[in-house]
Amino acid sequence: MSSADPRRIHLQRALATFRPSDDRESGFCRRMVTLLTSPGDPFSRDHFNPGHFTASAFILSPDRQHLLLALHAKLGRWLQPGGHVEASDADVLAAARREVSEETGLTGLEPLGQGVLDIDVHAVPPLFGSPEHAHFDVRYLFVAPTTQARAASDARSLRWVPLASVDDVESDASVMRAVSKIVRVLG
After folding, report:
1. Do residues 86 and 60 touch, judged by C-beta distance below 8 A?
2. Phi–psi pair at 152, nearest 5 degrees
3. Which of 21-35, 132-146, 157-171 is the least confident region?
4. Cα separation of 57 and 109, whole Å?
5. Distance of alpha carbon 177 from alpha carbon 24, whole angstroms
6. Is the pLDDT confidence value at 58 over 90?
7. 77, 78, 102, 148: least surrounded by Cβ within 10 Å?
């Protein structure tokens, strides 16, 4: 994959306009920019050193009062839908939309906000023959056209959680960071 790869160009532009919320997220952004300029295909799930890009989506209900969380089959935590970027995905935004469709059945999502909502770099333990590596997760915000969703793929279950109650479910700090950003976007 060359530096002229449209997926790299799209993500470089998205990261150039992204405004990190704190020093930690600024560090994630620098690491992502470095990964984009590294040899190999940083979008491939087989790119382990240091890792590869993934895409995910925070999805609000049509009334923008609830967030859709999926019980991740492998991790056993309530997280936003998302996953690996496939070779057929035009860019990470398309990958996020595809992952949402696969995990929840939702399509026709309306983007909310300006580009990337949140970024995160997290370690993935060795699983299914893969060595330990990092997921460089690019996260978008959408509004769903309906609350009629079904759990599939990596999602064991789905639930619409009131924004004010996301902290009460077993999730993680990166989800809570994104929720605080969502609250600011909704203003």
Report:
1. no
2. -155, 175
3. 157-171
4. 10
5. 11
6. yes
7. 148
Question: Cα angle vertex 14, ends 10, 20, to 5°?
Answer: 155
Question: What six digits make up the tokens of 136?
Answer: 């460089």
> How is the chain classified by DSSP, letter by letter?
--TT-HHHHHHHHHHHH---SSHHHHHHHHHHHHHHTSSS-TTSTT--SSEEEEEEEEEE-TTSSEEEEEEETTT-SEE-SEEEPPTT-SSHHHHHHHHHHHHH----PEE-SSS--EEEEEEE--BTTBPSEEEEEEEEEEE-S-S-----TTEEEEEEEEGGGGGGSS--HHHHHHHHHHHHHH-
| pLDDT tens-place string over residues 104-159 | 999 999 999 889 999 999 998 887 788 999 999 999 999 999 999 999 887 889 99
**In this structure, which amino acid lies at residue 179?**
V
Distance CA 160, CA 46 (A): 33
Q: Which residue has the tokens 């077993």?
A: 170
The CATH number of 6-186, from 3.40.640.10, 3.90.79.10, 1.10.3720.10, 3.10.400.10, is 3.90.79.10
Domain ranges for the chain: 6-186
Q: Is the Cβ–Cβ distance between 78 and 170 less than 8 Å?
A: yes
